[in-house]
From TrEMBL:
<protein>
    <recommendedName>
        <fullName>dTDP-4-dehydrorhamnose reductase</fullName>
        <ecNumber>1.1.1.133</ecNumber>
    </recommendedName>
</protein>
<comment type="function">
    <text>Catalyzes the reduction of dTDP-6-deoxy-L-lyxo-4-hexulose to yield dTDP-L-rhamnose.</text>
</comment>
<comment type="similarity">
    <text>Belongs to the dTDP-4-dehydrorhamnose reductase family.</text>
</comment>
<keyword id="KW-0560">Oxidoreductase</keyword>
<keyword id="KW-0521">NADP</keyword>
<dbReference type="InterPro" id="IPR036291">
    <property type="entry name" value="NAD(P)-bd_dom_sf"/>
</dbReference>
<dbReference type="GO" id="GO:0019305">
    <property type="term" value="P:dTDP-rhamnose biosynthetic process"/>
</dbReference>
<dbReference type="GO" id="GO:0008831">
    <property type="term" value="F:dTDP-4-dehydrorhamnose reductase activity"/>
</dbReference>
<feature type="domain" description="RmlD-like substrate binding">
    <location>
        <begin position="4"/>
        <end position="299"/>
    </location>
</feature>
<dbReference type="Pfam" id="PF04321">
    <property type="entry name" value="RmlD_sub_bind"/>
</dbReference>
<dbReference type="InterPro" id="IPR029903">
    <property type="entry name" value="RmlD-like-bd"/>
</dbReference>
<comment type="pathway">
    <text>Carbohydrate biosynthesis; dTDP-L-rhamnose biosynthesis.</text>
</comment>
<dbReference type="InterPro" id="IPR005913">
    <property type="entry name" value="dTDP_dehydrorham_reduct"/>
</dbReference>
Length: 301
């Protein structure tokens, strides 16, 4: 039987690939923001009520994801980032609780500071920070969103991802395609060689999501590359494999970049561990180089 899913933000970078990959196995309801805004409490609860028999799982992809724009709202709980990432997430959770629907909420490794004193990669059971110290406002709102959902008592899973990328999505530039486009235009800037990361190939995110939908497993899960890399190594490997271009990337320093005034804090020693997710779901994530191989196969297909 097909899984019946109500998904918010399903036309975005991550959600649209999930619905593309699993539309044959699932029956989706995917309201767009102009039809239904997750911060509008009454219309949201009416929508849940009206469609209650047409879905059993809810996935929340909807979020404000522009970290620099979010930073301009720091401390402002009336701002869009707090309203969508915290209040909107809570509104969805309350409706899921009321109608006994299983909720899957998408989050990020930016909920952790990833600083020298609080380094990643973070495990699924790493405690969320209690203060904003070292975090950008985006990461803080995403962490509070996770907490508000848990407080409602709804049956739910949180799936954290990091630097998601995929082969085809013209509407929004992602981490990998940004590198390719900058290179093609002769505008590639130095890539950080002192930043630690575990980028998420979106097809692997989708695979985990589908398992969570099928098994309705509660808890916190991660989808990311099985091993660590840096933007410099990622870019160098990607350009060599996708463009045959060797030694074309220069090194930059994230530490220096972040030390300039007005920069949004971001994890520098970041990334997500995936061991608990692998053992609970019985899967293995690809290493970052293997995932780039899959990404390139799709680009060339
Ligand atoms: N992109 C990243 O680098 C990244 C990294 C780690 C984690 N994540 C997480 O992954 C999830 C999906 O991100 P994404 O990159 O797919 O984001 P995206 O491409 O920006 O898509 C987000 C979607 O949410 C919708 N949305 C925003 N505000 C809404 C509201 N008030 N009500 C209903 N829908 C609303 C957007 O609609 P409009 O486009 O029409 O505004 C869009 O369809 C988010 O939870 C994000 O925090 C993303």
């Amino acid at each position: 039987m097909k899984s019946k899913i109500l998904a918010f933000g399903a036309d975005g970078l991550v959600g649209s690939r999930f619905t593309d990959l699993y539309h044959k196995d699932s029956q989706f309801i995917t309201p767009k923001i102009d039809e239904l805004d997750i911060t509008a409490k009454k219309p949201l609860s009416d929508y849940f009520e009206k469609n209650r028999s047409d879905f059993e799982v809810v996935i929340n992809f909807a979020a404000i994801t522009n970290v620099d724009a979010a930073e301009k709202e720091r401390g402002n709980k009336q701002g869009l980032s707090w309203q969508v990432n915290v209040e909107g997430a809570k509104n969805i959770a309350e409706n899921c609780l009321r109608l006994d629907k299983f909720l899957i909420h998408i989050s990020t490794d930016f909920v952790f500071p990833g600083t020298k004193n609080n380094p990643g990669p973070s495990a699924e059971d790493t405690k969320l920070p209690e203060t904003e110290e070292g975090l950008g406002w985006y990461g803080w709102t995403k962490g509070r969103g996770e907490e508000e959902i848990a407080k409602t008592g709804v049956k739910h899973a949180v799936l954290r991802i990091t630097y998601p990328y995929r082969a085809h999505y013209p509407a929004k530039i992602d981490f990998a395609r940004n590198i390719l486009e900058l290179f093609d235009e002769g505008k590639l800037y130095p890539m950080f060689s002192d930043q630690q990361m575990t980028p998420s190939f979106i097809d692997e995110i989708a695979k985990v999501l589908y398992l969570l939908v099928e098994e309705k497993r509660t808890g916190i899960f991660h989808a990311a590359s099985a091993d660590l890399t840096t933007p410099y190594d990622f870019a160098a490997y990607l350009l060599e494999k996708a463009r045959g271009a060797k030694d074309v990337v220069t090194k930059g320093s994230m530490k220096e970049y972040l030390s300039a005034a007005g920069r949004t804090p971001r994890p520098i020693v970041g990334g997500l561990k995936v061991a608990k997710t692998e053992s609970e779901l019985g899967i293995k994530f690809m290493g970052w180089q293997e995932a780039i191989g899959e990404f390139i196969k799709q680009l060339n297909a």
